[in-house]
Amino acid sequence: KGRILSGVQPTGNLHLGNYLGAIRNFARLQNDYECLYCVVDMHAITVWQDPKALAAQTREIAAAFLAAGVDGDKHAVFNQSMVPEHAQLAWIFNCVARLGWMNRMTQFKEKAGKDRENVSLGLYAYPALMAADILIYKATHVPVGEDQKQHLELTRDIAIKFNNDFGVPDFFPITEPLIFGAATRVMSLRDGTKKMSKSDPSDYSRINLTDDADAIAQKIRRAKTDPHPMPETASDAEKRPDADNLLGIYAALADMEKDAVIFEFAGKQFSEFKSALTDLAVTKLGPVGAEMQRLMKDPGHVDRVLHAGAEKARAIAAPILADVYRTVGFLNP
Ligand code: ATP
Ligand code: MG
Questions:
Q1: Which candidate, 98, 114, 124, 269, has a CA 20 to 30 Å from the CA of 285?
Q2: Residue 128 C-alpha to ligand 2 middle, in angstroms?
Q3: CB-ligand 1 contact for 66 (6 Å cutoff)
Q4: Could you count the other beta carbons within 10 Å of the beta carbon of residue 117?
Q5: Which helix (H) or strand (E) holds 284?
């Protein structure tokens, strides 16, 4: 059986992209893998987070994992900062990763924007911490959205360089990303060329997991489209990013192939498609949002799950870190 690690940052409103690209898959993989799912609070503070909001958001993400069907008894659900081995291995990886590799990371370029001088050192080092999150468990597979593919490649490069530098072939596994489903990169509802994101200032750009039926309906009604009828073919859809995005969302929520959705709505008006999409989104997301709200009213329960999860995680991480320390030559007299 392979081992899975994946994480979500407590940086704000969980949205449809997080759900379809990652969290829904977490639950779908849990019968075939040993799973570790963490709320990556240490990644979150690479950009400023209000401390009170951070703690509440950490519980909220954990509640979302459970609401999406992750079994917190069978698998480890925890927050990253509770397992210090992540940070300890990250330092070693800071010394393995090359500046040239980090300089190619597109997420850093996007998040840093023009004001490079003024972003945190942590934002730059983020992918090395992510590699540590994964390799501290020697995880073999990582379910993520398409946007994290480049960071997974960096993780593999770090594993290969560590194994070579220290002459320990096969010490770290060459981890595989698991990017699957019809919506591996959900785009903003306001701009079909931009990723749907927690940190987008416009709430109309995303559907949040906690949105009620009215909010979902309003956001889909306002979602950007073009003046033409629905695309007739896949190649037509590809040229129209806003339409293509909505079709992908429909396909993912309905568990259909995108081609079948295109066929079903070919040549119809967007208004008709949008009302079908609204019904589908409300049906599929409503129960998840409701379960999240219920869990958030019981923070004691969520905290117990996180605590037990961290213990399970540390039991795996501690011996691997000890091996790494020995390999690197850290003295432990
Ligand atoms: P932030 O804007 O703070 O980076 P985010 O929305 O990108 O937030 P993350 O916590 O960085 O969320 O990512 C959590 C998981 O959700 C990752 O696996 C990521 O690949 C996935 N994900 C994020 N955005 C999307 C999206 N638009 N479509 C599909 N998957 C996504
Ligand atoms: Mg992100």
A1: 269
A2: 15
A3: no
A4: 6
A5: helix 270-296
Smallest CA-to-CA distance from 28 within 158, 164, 178 is with 178
Look at residue 3 and give its three-state secondary structure: strand
Task: Quote the domain boundaries for residue 27.
Answer: 2-178+298-328
Select which of 198, 219, 258, 274 is catalytic: 198
Tokens for 204? Answer: 């109309």
Residues 247 and 168 placed together within one structural domain of the fold: no
Q: Which residues on adjacent β-strands are paired with residue 38?
A: 7, 78
Q: Among 5, 6, 15, 18, say which to mutate for ligand 1: greatest number of ligand atoms within 8 Å of CB.
A: 18
Residue 159 lies in a domain: yes
CB 207 within 8 A of CB 189: yes
Quick one: pLDDT at residue 151?
Answer: 98
Which conformational region is residue 49 in: left (phi greater than 0), alpha (psi within -120 to 50 degrees), or beta? beta
Looking at the fold, whether 9 and 136 belong to one and the same domain comes out as yes
CATH code, 65? 3.40.50.620
What spatial distance separates the first Cα and last Cα of the chain, rounded to whole Å? 36
**Longest distance between any two alpha carbons in the chain, whole Å:** 74
Regarding whether 125 and 262 lie in a shared domain, the answer is no
Percent above pLDDT 70 for the chain: 100
DSSP symbols for 169-196: TTSS--PEEE--SS-SSPBPSS-TTSB-
Name residue, tokens 């940070």. Answer: 87
Residue 12 tokens read as: 């704000």
CATH code, domain with 238:
1.10.240.10
Distances (CA, A) of 226 to 2, 71, 241, 262, 274: 44, 42, 9, 16, 13
Q: Name the average pLDDT for the chain.
A: 97
pLDDT value, residue 333: 87
